Amino acid sequence: MNFTYTISGMTCGGCATKVKSAFLKHPDVLAAEVSHQDGRAKVQTDSKPDRKKLDQLLADAGNYQIIEVSESSASKEESHSHASSVSEQETLTTWETYKPLVLIFLFVSGIAAIAAFDAQTFSWHHWMRYFMAGFFIVFSFFKFLDLKGFARSYAMYDLLAKQWKGYGYVYPFLELGLGVLYLTAINLPATHVATTIIMGFSSIGVIRNMLSPNQVQCACLGTIFKLPLGNVTLVEDLLMVAMAGVMLAMQI
């Protein structure tokens, strides 16, 4: 018998490995394929596995839960239909994946542009400051929605969070603090330096993971949205570093 389980809590390849191991510990499970990107586990069994036993095995492995179960009948017709629509699904997936990030960027950019107008003139310096304020405040908000989940995901690729788990809990507060400092313009030179250090250091972990064969989910929007860790994340970090550098140079 084949079953497909929808699993919550998976954020990276390491999570998928833990979930697969948990399923294989069940005596009725013969084989399992787990994808953290789809949030699903395809399981082959002799008989229908005991749900309580599976829930316990997943809970022991980490913060993972079964939220949906469906029995699969993988017929040739279904396989052919799936293959014929792969390219369309990949296109939709790419847009749907980055849609939240694009919308946030557009909203923050627009609000920053409105705030940067002063007496019929537009100030790029003010726009960058307001944009960075909105960026840090909004991104910290999504991390606070699931602080524990963010800390776990962030520790998968950030160098400091790997060594000290507490940094994953501190980081959203650092982002929020930077956002407030940019919004209030309190001690901007020191804020620019802090931004360069924090975001520059974060980008090092992103680059290292991009060079690794293991795929990890980006934690920039917490665990609410599933974003792959890659070029977009790196550009996001380096953009903050570049803006901070430009504004610091303008004040010197």
How far the N terminus sits from the C terminus, by CA atoms, comes to: 69 Å
Count of DSSP E strands?
Answer: 8
The biggest sheet amounts to:
4 strands, antiparallel
- Kindly state the percentage of residues in helix: 55-70%
Mean pLDDT: 84
Number of distinct helices = 10
- Which sequence of strands runs across the widest sheet? 2-3-1-4
**Rg (CA only):** 22 Å
Shape: elongated
Number of domains: 2
Question: Helix and strand string, N-terminal first?
Answer: EHEEHEHHEEHHHHHEEH
Indicate the low-confidence ranges by residue numbers. 73-92
Strand content: 5-15%
Give the class from helix and strand content and strand pairing.
alpha+beta
What does this structure look like?
The chain folds into two domains: 80 residues, Alpha-Beta Plaits; 167 residues, no CATH class. The protein is elongated and about 75 Å long. It is an alpha+beta fold.
